[in-house]
């Protein structure tokens, strides 16, 4: 599976945390399963336009959380599925499913929907 990871270098959240949270989200959602390989640090860094150390820190945090393991010959692989998500995450998942269905019915493409959601997430709370 190709990971759709993005980094906003202008965001207040550090790039390594953006990477970590997105990969953890894929694991939480079951889109990355035990045994799945993550991209190499060098490849992901090149794709995102960040330093290899940035991706390395994200992977180290994921490893410390027990979600991945770095292995010499196989690279970084998912080791386990994280604990059940909190109720708010389940509610957000349902809302995302509803949004996806609404977008499909309206003929709105995935990239447009993602751009709308990203823009909404960047807006200050209130």
Automatic annotation (TrEMBL):
Q: Which domain of life is it from?
A: Bacteria
- Which Pfam families does this chain map to? GntR
Gene3D superfamilies in the cross-refs = Winged helix-like DNA-binding domain superfamily/Winged helix DNA-binding domain
What residue stretches are annotated with the HTH gntR-type domain? 13-81
Claim: Repeat is one of the keywords in the record? no
- Keyword hit for Transcription: yes
InterPro entries assigned: Tscrpt_reg_HTH_GntR, WH-like_DNA-bd_sf, WH_DNA-bd_sf
Q: Which CDD domains match?
A: WHTH_GntR
The terms under GO molecular function for this entry are: DNA binding; DNA-binding transcription factor activity
UniProt keywords (A-Z) are: DNA-binding, Transcription, Transcription regulation
Q: What is this protein called?
A: Transcriptional regulator, GntR family
The record lists the organism as Geodermatophilus sabuli
